[in-house]
Amino acid sequence: MSKEQAPLWEVFVRARRGLSHTHVGSLHAPDAELALRNARDLYTRRQEGVSIWVVPAAAITASSPDEKDAFFDPAADKVYRHPTFYEVPDGVAHL
Amino acid sequence: MYGNDFSAEDAPGGGLLGEVEAAEAALRAAAERGRRGGPAPDEDLAAYFAAVVDADQKIEPRDWMPEAYRKTLIRQIAQHAHSEIIGMQPEGNWISRAPSLKRKAILLAKVQDEAGHGLYLYAAAETLGVSREELVDLLLSGRQKYSSIFNYPTLTWADVGAIGWLVDGAAIVNQVPLCRCSYGPYARAMIRVCKEESFHQRQGYEILHTLAHGTPAQKAMAQDAVDRWWYPSLAMFGPPDTDSTHSAQSMAWKIKRFSNDELRQRFVDMCVQQAEVLGLTIPDPDLRWNDERQSYDFTQPDYAELMRVISGDGPCNRQRMAHRRAAHSEGAWVREAAAAYAAKRAQQQKEKVAA
Amino acid sequence: MNGPFDFTLALGDDALIAAQRLAEWTTRAPEMEEDIALANIALDQLGAARLLLTYAGELEGAGRDEDALAFLRDDREFRNCLLVELPNGDFAVTMAKLLFLAAYQLPLYTALAGCADERLAAIGAKARKESAYHLDHSSLWVKRLGDGTEESHRRMQAAVDQVWPYTAELFAPAPDAPVDPATLRGQFDATVAAVLGEATLTRPETGWAPAGGRDGVHTEHLSYLLAEMQVLHRAHPGARW
Question: What Gene3D superfamilies does the database record attribute to this sequence (chain A) (predicted)?
């Protein structure tokens, strides 16, 4: 990683009270504080959330989708391949 | 969020939004059905991949996939992301001069959404094992392209309307089928993008509608914008099917679901009635209903011009790239400062733990 | 800045001109994520400006709406502080401007939320939450630039030095206004001191204190800003958009 490229963070949003946090996507930020602010601006522009978590993508250990790791791309350490984008968002206002 | 005050009846794109909803429902249904298990130890991986795609199940990031599928997706998603980022410029050009505070707020929110869409798409591309830094570098070095439409200038306020109606309209026609793309992260990103973009098209249409029913000068401004943006918008669907190199394989992989010409025709058929409501003329004397085909016959865009613009000789290619490069290089000291600050804090944290 | 009209107009003009400057960053921010953040802040300021100018027009009672006030006044009729009309400069200058503006607007809107005028109280209640976010955002960046690299420290200190003199004008006493700005000075100083301290930056000595914005005597920059902002609206008198 070059000194310029900020690390990748996975973003989880609680859409409403009573629901669990759901993965919504990822973003780049130099540190956790900025990651949280960026997540607010990027993923909740339309009031899609009441609470946000950000997690360094590098801190996530992902399982393989199936039992045989060898069948998958030999890049298990590249966790950034894992983030599925997000659960389909709840309806946007006015649509 | 914005543009809500436009009545639903004559707003275009309702049918397309329905298709986005349907794609979302299909995605949920496919997830409900559950993907078949992983490949058996001796199973042919290509056959396994094909079976998943044929069953309209989504391929997810850590699944095995053909290298060409991965490369095609990276190229397509990245170019889509670049288009969102470069596409901010022509409309951003009018934020400072928007003719009312309401229009200024709507336009600013719209251009901001485009930055957001670019970032959703970069994130989707990153799930395929390419980094943001590499993607930005591919754009800035000119090795990856963005949609050629953004190499045309926005000369008047009406161009903001024409971009919303025609360019966003064409983009939505292009993008709605991508909500059913076989690659899960891309399909999900597109559903989100399409939902947010419905307001973009409506605000553009509303701008043109207001201008077309305003003063004679405003109406002339609107017609001039439609005259300039019509054919470049038709060209957004790419070269005719006979010349399109990537289509067949992409259709088999369900990355692409309709041909360039099919989508172009669908767009023209949508626009004719919308233009009538606006009271503006589509600049094509040969545009007429074909009863046999149940579609409009129309004049094709100048594909030689499209090729010239793609290869770098459009009116604004150099300007758009110079602008993006300048923003990136002028921001370097800020990004370096943030990285240095984060490193200092991490180091202090470590020392605290060690002490 | 005395009666409710002058007061409301001045606040609306602050927000409008701040929004116009912040929006200039669109497509130019140091990072794409920051492009979105700056647009958010610009949208907040623009939203507050629209509410304030609309209400100012009603207080005046001369039939001027938000657009008449925004697009059909000349620079001598604008009542914004000089701070917001200063050019963006580099990202450090923009963050210094935003820090000082937010550190002023937050206690101002908070006080407004408790004032007797119901409309102003409602606007204050909405805008103070936004100001808290603007203060948070600018503080994060001032700390990172101040305590980042040598170059960023140098730029951030230069920005603070450049912009600081323009903060004096914000606190000119106006005892009859719905909120007397002079009463906000203590909170502003405390907020700014904490951020600058953590950012390893030095607050300049207070000396030269340019002013005049509240009386319509501006810097040379405002007229250019308005020329651009108003050009299209004025080219089509009476048109609807």
Answer: Phenylacetic acid degradation B
